[in-house]
Amino acid sequence: MGKNNRHGQAEIWSEDQFEQVNLELSPKMRALLAICYYTLCRVSEARQLKAEDIVNRAIVFRRATTKTKKTRTVPVHPKLQQILSEADLPTSGCLFPGRGDKPITRQAVDAALRDACDRLGLIGFSTHSCRRTGATRLSSEGVPLRVIQEVGGWSSLAALQRYLEVSPHQMKDAISRLG
């Protein structure tokens, strides 16, 4: 069950849903949400990035903008690099400027995503769907939880595990391995 009026967990994107939503978004909003997906970051972390935080094909999330107050550096995926290059982002200062010299608001990002989802008839998704989907896909691919925790900046493995979705197929596969 997805989110409903800010209650419950955000749905996990299928590959098709993620692509459809991306096509509905502006290039800059697509870039912001792609950062959330490919780096497992929170929308509040992505929206506060500065152009100077992208260094040597990596994104540096400064401790001042992270929930855990720890700096972390995440390599830029080639698909994310392509999306960023197509977005015509600023080369200095706020990567995603809002009004004045401040970053775009979380509410503006949320509204853009909700509008895209509404146009597509998708229910239960939020900006957190990017983070949950990325973490769940990495887990499904066998990436160790400790690595996923480090990439996404979760404070503990217990906190990370609440994000991960287990599919019926995974449960059936697990049971089939019993002798």
Largest sheet: 3 strands, antiparallel
Structural class: mainly alpha
Number of domains: 1
Quick one: CATH superfamily?
Answer: Intergrase catalytic core
Radius of gyration, whole Å: 16 Å
| Mean model confidence by pLDDT | 92
Strand line-up in the sheet with most strands = 1-2-3
What is the count of β-strands?
3
3D structure, described in words:
By secondary structure, the protein is mostly helical. The chain has a single domain (15-176), classed as hpI Integrase, Chain A. 49% of the residues lie in helices and 6% in strands. It has a three-stranded antiparallel beta sheet with strand order 1-2-3, with no helix packed on it. The longest helix has 15 residues, at 106-120. It is globular, with a radius of gyration of 16 Å. The mean pLDDT is 92.
Provide a short characterization of the protein structure.
By secondary structure, the chain is mainly α.
Keywords:
179 residues; mainly alpha; hpI Integrase, Chain A; three-stranded antiparallel sheet; 9 helices; 3 strands; 6% strand; globular
Topology of this structure?
Layout: H1 15-24, H2 27-39, H3 43-47, E1 54-55, E2 58-61, E3 72-75, H4 78-86, H5 106-120, H6 128-140, H7 145-152, H8 157-161, H9 168-176
Antiparallel strand pairs: 1-2, 2-3
Helix pairs in contact: 1-5, 2-4, 2-6
